[in-house]
Amino acid sequence: MLSPQSAMTKFAVFNTICRCSRSGLSSFPSKVYSGSGQVPPQPLPLSDQLFNSAPQSGSFRLGDSTFYSLIHHYAHNADFTSLHNVLCRMKLQNRVFTEKCFIVIFKAYGRAHLPDEAVDLFHRMPHEFHCIPTVKSFNSVLNVIIQEGFYHRALDFYNRSVNAKNTNISPNVLTFNLLLKSICKLGWVDCAIEVFREMPLRKCPPDVYTYCTLMDGLCKEDRIDEAVSLLDEMQTEGCFPTHVAFNVLINGLCKKGDLARAAKLVDNMFLKGCLPNQVTYNTLIHGLCLKGKLDKAVSLLDRMVSSNCIPNDITYGTIINGLVKQGRAEDAVMLFISMEERGYGVNEYVYSALISGLFKGRKSEDAMKLWTQMMEKGCKPNTVVYSALIDGLCREGKPKEAEEILSEMIDNGCIPNAYTYSSLMKGFFKTGNCHKAVQLWKDMEEHECIHNKVFYSVLIHGLCEDGNLSEAMMVWRHMLDKGCKPDAVAYSSMIQGLCNAGSLEEALKLFNEMLCQATESQPDVITYNILLNALCNQNSISHAIDLLNSMLDRACDPDIATCNIFLRTLREKLDPPQDGGKFLDELVIRLFKRQRVFGACKIVQVMLQKFLPPKASTWARVVQELCKPKKIQAAIDKCWRNLDD
To answer: Which residues are bridge partners to 39 per DSSP?
Structure first.
């Protein structure tokens, strides 16, 4: 029989082992000194004597602490088999179970993505372990469920647990915050508002996280005004807004494109003594980039630096990506150099945006230099960067070099995606190597990305352009057999192929089928132009006019190609020929009546380029619409930018 002193010594050794394990240390002290000498550390598992030697002291025995340490140790290492054994042993020895040990286990289940086990253990607590759960345990399990995205189940767990008979669970503010998060994630914002209004009645006044959760839910449902009004209510109720609250609203306004109100909120932040942080600036910069206001985004970056708010790679990456999308790859490179000079690390996504932008800007040599520089700096390319390089090489008409990069990509453990292969296929089609593109598709049949609709669209478009309608039809049937629904590009490509083959009736049938599809498969201006051109070539001008009317009814605006089709038809197919000025003038008026100002202005631009001046009354309507204060200022700003360039 071990003495109490000896048992205490072994217990100290065990705690040392657990602490070392939890802190990630690979070793622990090789010697532990006690009053009676040194005792070497004991290997796991510990002997039964360690738990049975200490005398009982009330409802707590010395061995209980050892069990608690074991629970922490196994939970931290996600050793659930050992955890189960410890719990079973504690039951056999009638040990005391405390709630904090279960909370540790619940958190471990959460990290291991095991919500079912957490719920099961929660329900077993009172009967099997004689430990009555409180709101602390309940919140832990509820959070585990929500973290896995099981929002319906979280609500069910709440109703079953809180509303159950003989429950010891009284919801607190954290409970309601988790509940509101689930409800908002499900899009039930009105229900969330009801729960929010009930909180004070349950003696749980909302805190800043409650308001932020509800604001975020309202913003995601495009109810920005209600979210902003909550900010005022929040302050009236004595809950001071934090950066999180302001950032949620600013993000919602930026996504909506209301940058003016977002800027006012930033001013409000300053008035409240809440200085904008990194997230605030990044959100505003992202919003400006979405609106194409890159110059203002760069100015805001300078303001951010002058305010002692340090930009990060997200800040620079957002602006660089925005500049690239505007075709300003050289400006993006200058910002990239500035970023490096300031000591910021560049991630793979910045490199991919720059490489892609330089290729699109016909700066292939600069793109390849950047690729080499990235490799020399030890920045390991990922799938996105490899795909950008492959796409760029294919744009340059170098699919063989791109194929070599693909092999290198696979050798380095990067898995190509549908974009990677579709870029390579475009490259082969562009160089006239149709056979190689089809062979690539056949080689990829065992890969999941072969069933991606983008991949099918590229293949069908390339085959139809090459005049291989029969092979395109084979791919079309293969796509349908695999349950992959065609998008607008695939439909338009097939319609183009059928029109080129003289099968106009079949093309119109496919077009009518397209009208019955989902939004992403609805015809766009390209689809209409294909059919309008085919109808006009066959002198079916009245049918073409009917199709144009249908196009306008479906809120699809004509473009320059549409105008050119009808101008050519009126000039070449009618006797006597017409200049088409009257036709386009009437089209402008029809668009104005439908309040489609942008589409009308595009046609006016075509008329001016073709020296077909609009009627005086039409011109008056155009000027009246364009001369609104905001639009005048926008035009002036654009002129100044052009002068600066």
So the answer is: 32
Determine the Cα–Cα distance for residues 145 and 180; give it in Å rounded to an integer: 14
Q: What is the DSSP secondary structure assignment for residue 201, as one 8-state letter?
A: G
For residue 419, the surrounding DSSP H or E stretch is helix 418-430
The full DSSP string for 332-396 is: HHHHHHHHHHTTPPP-HHHHHHHHHHHHHTT-HHHHHHHHHHHHHTT----HHHHHHHHHHHHHT
**N residues, the chain:** 645
CB 218 within 8 A of CB 189: yes
Residue type, 527: T
Best CA proximity match to 19, nearest among 1, 36, 6, 32? 32
Which of 478, 466, 476 is CA-nearest to residue 437?
466
Give the alpha-carbon dihedral of 14, 15, 20, 23, to 10 degrees.
150
Q: Identify the DSSP state of 574.
A: S
Return d(Cα 619, Cα 99) in angstroms, integer.
Answer: 78
**Cα–Cα dist 394/402, whole Å:** 6
Residue 314 near residue 350 (C-beta atoms within 8 A): no
Counting Cβ atoms within 10 Å, is residue 498 exposed (0-12), middle (13-18) or buried (19+)? buried
- Tokens read off for 643: 């002068």
Question: Mean pLDDT in each 10-residue stretch from start to end of the chain (645 residues)?
Answer: 41 38 35 38 44 45 74 90 89 89 94 94 91 92 94 92 77 93 92 92 90 91 88 84 87 85 85 84 88 84 83 82 83 81 74 83 84 82 86 89 88 83 89 85 66 80 88 88 86 93 92 86 92 93 92 91 92 84 90 85 87 85 68 59 54
Tokens linked to 98: 């405390």
| pLDDT for the residue numbered 525 | 93
- pTM > 0.85: no
